[in-house]
Amino acid sequence: MTYDLLIHGGTVLTVNTGFDVIEDGIVGVSGDIVTLVTARDGVLPAARRVIDAAGGIIMPGLVNTHTHLPMTLFRGLADDLPLQRWLEDHMFPAEAAYITESTAKTGALLACAEMLLSGTTTCCDGYFFEGQVAEAVAAAGMRAVLGCGVVDFPAPGVPDPGENVAHAARFADDLAHRFPTVAPAVFCHAPYTCGERTLRRAKAAAAERGLLFQIHIAETRSERRQIMEQHAMTPVGYLDRLGLLDPNTLLVHAIWVDADDIHRIAVNGAAVSVTTQSEMKLASGIAPLSAFLAAGVRTGLGTDGAASNNSLDMFREMDMTAKIHKVHHLDPTCMDARTVLTLATRGGAEAIGLGRQVGSITVGKQADLIVVGTDQPGMTPLYEAASQVVYSAKGRDVRHVVVAGRPVVADGRLLTLPLEEILDAAQAVGQRIRSGKEPS
After folding, report:
1. β-strands 62-67, 120-127: how paired?
2. Res 164: pLDDT
3. How far apart are CA 110 and CA 429, in angstroms?
4. Contact residues for 43 (Cβ-Cβ < 8 A; gap 6+)
5. Can you tell me the distance from the alpha carbon of 434 to that of 417, in angstroms, rounded to the nearest whole number?
6. Three-state DSSP class for residue 191
């Protein structure tokens, strides 16, 4: 048999259910599917294309379960502020003034370039002008689940909030089957920006189409207090009362939750996205990640948007997630490297409904693979591959990236997008924002 692609010469971190680690492993790809995962035994099989991992780590592409891709354009714009002030005084006005079809695509292209070069092959996004985001993702060769944003006030691309759910549904219908690696979703911003009628209608639109429903929930103590005052129940309890919790619901943040909330999430089969660094930067709190896992809640890691992180590097996210929970629980064994790596790959894929397709190096799954180099001082020597990935690696250590069997990064160079043009375009938008000029 001749494989279309063969990756060899490294340690294979499968992140399968047994977490098999294969020294001097080989991964064979036929079309867009993994068809061989084994240790090398003699002569390499025949292949049309060969990638030598050069002693590096061969692993699944990372899965970022929560992003707002065009917000790369606001990276560093309004740092060191509380969430509500950051949102209401800076982000919402900046979006209204500067997010257009053109700038949304520029920001999304910048985000895709950053993610691919740092080993993220799949993301779950929610924002405005999501059709342009889809075009950017497809051009980059990434995999994504994309939801058009829903809020109960005028938003970029949706000047009439009465059309918010209909607009999101049209986007989902238009995107269905348009790009092979891009799937639609519905994204309700939060229960404090969407009323009960909007929440119910948005979830119904998602359910009718069998799509993922994303929502920020229980992000801050003030949000919990507000929902308790308005509805006499917790934010998660409120969603449960509305019938919004099910296996096609992704709850983003879920920090201010209690034991009853976690039980509700678990019994309804909903999933959670934890965005550790964004939550730290905005001083929102620490999500009860250990409790989610103990309850069997499908959980993944995300970066959030680059305006509140300020990075889309999932290696940084893994490192910080592991360490913050160790110190929070005063337990160095908490959130061990294999657990955190699983959250950033297979766990994240399961949380956004792609567990059967991606998240581990398994025969029959999509060939979304990365090679992490171990030839730099910060990655040498190598004893335990998962620990090295979580505690030592950075996005810049990624050497090769493959999505659906197609190389998109080779030797640290982006193959699918004109990086210099994207950087120039993003700089131009940033200059307009700094000067206060309206977008052209």
Report:
1. parallel
2. 96
3. 12
4. none
5. 26
6. coil
Structural contact between residues 325 and 293, judged by C-beta atoms closer than 8 angstroms: no
Q: Report the C-alpha gap between 281 and 83 in whole angstroms.
A: 9
Instruction: Indicate the SS3 state at residue 401.
Output: strand
Residue type, 9: G
What are residue 240's phi and psi, to 5 degrees? -65, -45
Does residue 253 contact residue 275 with C-beta atoms inside 8 Å?
Answer: yes
pLDDT band at 436 (very low <50, low <70, confident <90, very high): confident
Q: How confident is the model at residue 350 (pLDDT cuts 50, 70, 90)?
A: very high
Token pair of 419 as six digits: 């990086």
Alpha helices in 64-156 (DSSP H): 83-85, 92-98, 101-117, 130-140
Nearest to 189, CA basis, from 66, 32, 334: 66
Residue found under tokens 């660094």: 277
Distance CA 148, CA 131 (A): 8
pLDDT number for residue 138 = 98
Note the pLDDT tens digit of each residue in 223-239: 999 999 999 999 999 99
> What residues are paired with 149 via a beta bridge?
187
Q: How many CB atoms lie within 10 A of CB 181?
A: 21
| Rounded-to-10 torsion of CA 329, 331, 337, 343 | -20
* Beta-carbon contacts of residue 41 (< 8 Å; ≥ 6 apart): none
Give the Cα separation of 255 and 236 in Å (integer).
10
This prediction's pTM: 0.97
Q: H-type helices in 306-404, by residue range? A: 314-329, 337-343, 346-351, 385-391
The rounded distance, in Å, linking the Cα atoms of 53 and 108 is 29
CB 308 within 8 A of CB 278: yes
* Residues in a beta bridge with 372: 57, 398
Encoded tokens for 339: 């657990």
> Residues 6 or more apart from 340 whose CB is under 8 A from it?
301, 318, 321, 322, 390
Count of H-run helices and E-run strands, the chain: 16, 19
- Which tokens in the block code for residue 292? 């989610």
Our CA angle for 312, 318, 276, nearest 5°, is: 70
Largest CA distance in the chain: 68
CA gap 331, 36 in Å, rounded: 39
Distance CA 390, CA 394 (A): 9
- Is the CB of residue 385 less than 8 Å from the CB of residue 24? no
Compute the half-sphere exposure of residue 41: CA atoms within 13 Å on the CB side of its CA: 5
DSSP string of 251-311, one letter each residue? EEE--S--HHHHHHHHHHT-EEEE-HHHHHHTT-----HHHHHHTT-EEEE----TTSSS-
